[in-house]
């Protein structure tokens, strides 16, 4: 990025900048209690990242995870802090709400009016300020007009939002920070685009459990920043996997609200409120897996000479594709993934005998599968019994029923000798989480 453009964008960093602050023991305790109430957590590969950072303080590190839940942000942020890692996390600008106060508006609405009496309510703390102080920085995905405290309005068009994000990425790399961005996207259709037969790219969290790839643009910014600053940038693959995604049943409501043109602020409150209540609910804990790959250095040596822009873009596509495959390869298999994969595409009723046969076929496929160009073995940690053999069909069914049937609105039940899915959208989530293991590897 040319210096004059960087200097211009730097003057607007306050529109998106992080303000990383340490958190107190009480806040840490609350997060740990909420997480412990919800998940049995397994972390793989983080110790190697800590060791790498100690040995390589003079580089920048970018984490690239999949994105299944709004809880990803919270869980990763808390995990990094627990392990003494300063990691800045990118968040969509729609989350940074200046006109909603944590203590006066959000907590009373979500948890009860008694929070109005909280002594901290006397000190304003907006959602935007809270996220910023916890190390989050904004990304603007579309043109926006921002009103400043002095009443001045700053308008950012598509070109300015892109330039501002590029400049801020360069700033992070220059400062040798560790930072996390969510590069995933999925192709979705809206009613109008359906008529036109055009696709729309939805970036960020997936509502269906299916991610179509990693967008090349975040990787392109990483490469440009490394070239412009001379600082090495390392990519870390991150896979976060839930036995049950906290807001799986709420995605249908969020989609309906989006299609109805509901105010984004109302959608956000509905979204975050559901997640908070799920963290606090008295329920059976489910498993959570967070896995980190080995840091891979972005090789900038070939990116010289003529047609540099084309070379950078080509390299960005390559890194995006490789990282996406690595993240998918880290995906563990949960019993529910196998169970819901046994149904047909429409989740029609399935007789008990056929269900057992299909589960056995899937078990056999996964047991022998070496997936991807790297021929990775599939992570079967959650479907192995005490004898290190993959669960039987009945054990897979039993665990799925423990998680998805013992609720007010069961996702699946047994009707006579027929298995029935009552919520196909939720069931599709868990089939989609491992769908790539049943697709031919792309060369």
Helix content: 40-55%
Largest sheet: 8 strands, mixed
Instruction: Count every beta strand, where a strand is a DSSP E run of 2 or more residues.
Output: 18
Q: Give the number of helices.
A: 16
Strand percentage: 15-25%
Description:
The protein has 443 residues and is α/β, with parallel strands linked by helices. Helices cover 43% and strands 17% of the residues. The protein is built from 16 helices and 18 strands. The strands form five sheets. Strands 1, 2, 3, 4, 7, 11, 12 and 13 form an eight-stranded mixed sheet that branches. It has a three-stranded antiparallel sheet with strand order 9-8-10. Strands 14-18-17 form a three-stranded antiparallel sheet. A hairpin with a 5-residue loop joins strand 5 and strand 6. Helix 13 packs across helix 16. The protein is globular and about 70 Å long. 35% of the residues are buried. About 2% of the residues have low confidence.
Report a brief summary of the structure.
43% of the residues lie in helices and 17% in strands. It is built from 16 helices and 18 strands.
Structural descriptors:
eight-stranded mixed sheet, three-stranded antiparallel sheet, 18 strands, 43% helix, globular
Secondary structure topology:
Layout: H1 3-10, H2 25-38, E1 39-44, H3 46-55, E2 60-65, H4 71-82, E3 87-92, H5 102-111, H6 127-133, E4 136-139, E5 144-147, E6 153-156, H7 158-174, E7 178-180, E8 184-188, H8 191-196, E9 200-203, E10 213-214, H9 216-229, E11 233-242, H10 251-259, H11 264-280, E12 286-292, E13 296-297, H12 308-329, H13 335-341, E14 350-351, H14 352-368, E15 370-371, E16 376-377, H15 393-404, E17 412-415, E18 418-421, H16 424-432
Helix pairs in contact: 1-7, 7-9, 9-12, 10-11, 13-15, 13-16
